[in-house]
Design a protein that fits this description.
Blueprint (H helix, E strand, L loop, with lengths): L25 E2 L2 E2 L7 H5 L5 H13 L2 H10 L6 H17 L2 H14 L3 E3 L5 E3 L3 H17 L1 H4 L6 H17 L11 H14 L5 H9 L12 H22 L2 H7 L5 H17 L5 H4 L2 H21 L4
Antiparallel strand pairs: 1-2, 3-4
Amino acid sequence: MSLLEEGDSPEAATRPLSGGPATVRKAEGEVEPFGPGSLLWDQFGLYTSALAGNSVFILQAMHPAIGTVVDQLSSFRTDPVGRARRSFASVQTWIYGGETAIEEGRRLREMHKPLSAVDEHGVSHHALSAEPWAWVHLTGFYAAVTAPRYFSTEPMTPQKEQQIFDEFMRLGRILRVPERMLPATIPDYWRYFDAMVADTLVPHKVALEVLDAMDKVPPGIPAQLRPALAPMMAVVGNLGRFITTGTLPPAAREKLGLTWTSRDDRNLRIIGQTIARTTPLLPERLRYMPIAYRAREAARAKERLDHALVTRPL
């Protein structure tokens, strides 16, 4: 999920205990698409994954290049709902699209080729520069290992952490992130991540604007509906901002001037555990986003067909 992969035309975390070289299966020069059995297949499509995912948007917007390009070329101000729908559809395609995921990686690269902007200091930024393109992708691993601290009933094991890391590196290849930008190990990742937060990220106005807009009725909503939606948006948006603030790394919060207390952290854990315990009680179609649900449904149907074919009378 990201501010850049939105389909516009042309348009401190607890440290892991494990580490090791990433591995990836390739066929004819391409990375194999994801399917059942991968952790991203089980987790990426959950609606609850978006809860910690908002911090990814903020981390991305704090990168000077990404913030500048989004500020000048994105539709996030005029069509935030449409932009979010396109972004989530693209992200879901990466994991659940099968061979379409490979084509989506190509499409995103082509779509972002013409996107460049000049900031207030006269510095030119391009959406496809290696550093911001990699940052867009690699912030996802931060969210993947941060979310379970709040929104899971059990801690992530070192084995699962390593598997998710390997899968994110595989996803990076689907998205055509330059190989030199992909960390080789989990410790390498955290050295890279901490350095980016400390030395590269800035309190960009886009990040602050996104946070401020969370409790506002988005543009494009008919005038007659806005008064009725305003109270709901205030409640949902304030909760979203609270979760986003809490799941940001402390150094990023400090740069943005956001406060966070030990009491806030306790409250977020209570909220997270409530969500973690109630979500599994919902039907699968209500837990997963549409593309993810349909992909999982289709995979089960294929498994049943394969079984019927293998066990057919001969």
